[in-house]
Amino acid sequence: MQTHELPMILFTVLSQMSVGAFLALGVVQTLAVSRYSSTTIDRLADPALLAIGPTLVAGFLASMFHMNDVTNTINVLRHWNSSYLSREIIVGMAFAGLGFVFTVMQWRRMGSPGLRRALALVTAAVGVLLVWVQSMVYYSLVTVPAWNTWATPLRFFATTVLLGSLAVGVAFAWNIVRAERAAPQEDEEASAEQDGPADTGGAPAAESRPARGGGLAMLVRPAALTTSERESATELTRTSLRVVSAVATTVALVIVVSLPLYLAGLAQEGSRAALASGETFDGVFFIMRMGLLVVGAVVLSLVTFRLAADRHSTSSRLTLLVSVALVVCFVSEIMGRSIFYESMIRIGM
Amino acid sequence: MLGFSFDQTKCNGCKACQIACKDKHDLPVGVTWRRVAEYSGGTWQEDEDTAVPNVFAYYTSMACNHCENPICVQVCPTTAMTVRDDGTVYVDDEKCVGCRYCEWACPYSAPQFNADTGHMTKCDLCADYREQGQDPACVAACPSRALGWGEIEDLRKEHGTNSSVEPLPDPSITRPNLVIIPHRDAQKSGQGTGAIANPKEI
User: Fold this and answer.
1) Which structural domain, as residue segments, surrounds residue A61?
2) Cβ–Cβ of B169/A67 closer than 8 Å?
3) Into how many domains does chain A fold?
4) What ipTM was reported for this prediction?
5) Would you state the pLDDT for residue A326?
6) Residue (of B101, B82, B99) closest to B91 by Cα position
7) Pick from B76, B104, B117: which is nearest to A141 by CB?
């Protein structure tokens, strides 16, 4: 394990997971709106959204340890017209800022749904830009053959999609378990009102109101759901988990298939540095990284995929499964990023 | 634009330049602005029952080449890495955050990290010595007169334009202000068959 670059490993993986989770929530909001009421979607998505901020902040905090003189930190913005490192910080702060504004607006139901949707779209675009710029920090080093390849952006986006979607799956699943554990309160009237036809979901009249008591109550008392609301949320969660599992497996396959192509590229490049870099993708640590990826993103995800379709499976079991899958994939990605930094061998002397 | 010249045919690998530099700038352990790489390799031919060795080794003394296209300056997020009017590349201590990105980028290992200050450091071609009309410490110390410095145009007129020699990288990447007078066994950058024999010193 490459402990020397730990700040960068944590920063890149955590920020990519944050972007991925934001994107995954956007996809759920977009795809689910035709079949579920916005109340149901928001009840699931909002707590997940609130978890993105701290993840991103943790990433930024980790990145501070990469610098050896933090008193000059503000200078890292100066060279935006030339250095991808400056651009990475600027775009990262833009994503964090937009994400914060959007989260507050969504949480407190400020502004029209249309405005919030537009803001979410801009934030998502900036998030994608962040991952791209982040990969360019490494790709643009023509003196490092291991990084100056198509595999760098591919890896970064793979991390984004894999961890982001799994994180959203876990957030949804936990939400359902908590809602189920809280005593179900039958409230026919509210049920009828809230479970209206989905096509009114986007209209201001049917817009979901902030949770009773407002603010954090939404997180503290997830039980403020009627039975039919909860059933609808459970169905959406299970569908989401199936999609998340399928996405995770696909990403894992992309990572596995890209590896020999990447190594062949290094061999073809042929420089001493490229050949030496290729040798870092070997050994027990590397095999463990790939093994964990297969366990988390393929084996556990396929079980989750099957179980989510099974009406007799319990939510708590599903939650446990997808949570373990996330943890295993997270560890695997951290290890993978460690190998990525270890493969840094420069040309020349 | 200022630069260095280095004559591989004269260097015997004594490393006086390295030590003179370290002494002049009082560099801590682990920070060595000028380093001497020993590049060696070889093969043998079978001549009936005899294996005839065909081996080579030569030295390359390397500091910062104050490149025309300095990748360290391009990637530095803080603009601490700057080019002076005379073409030399230097680090502004007031701006550097010690992120070490320039260290990743430079194919000559010129920018080096000083753990005491938390900043990057590098060869400035002995700016203070030059102001006083002296030669840079490394050039003055070389007992075989393998090192030279001056306006790169003058150096190129005198010694030619080669700087594409192993173990140095392809000069088209950063366009170093460097002239190498190649050793008779010198191999072209990117086509080397040897290896650096003292990687831990570099």
Assistant:
1) 6-195+209-342
2) no
3) 1
4) 0.91
5) 96
6) B82
7) B104
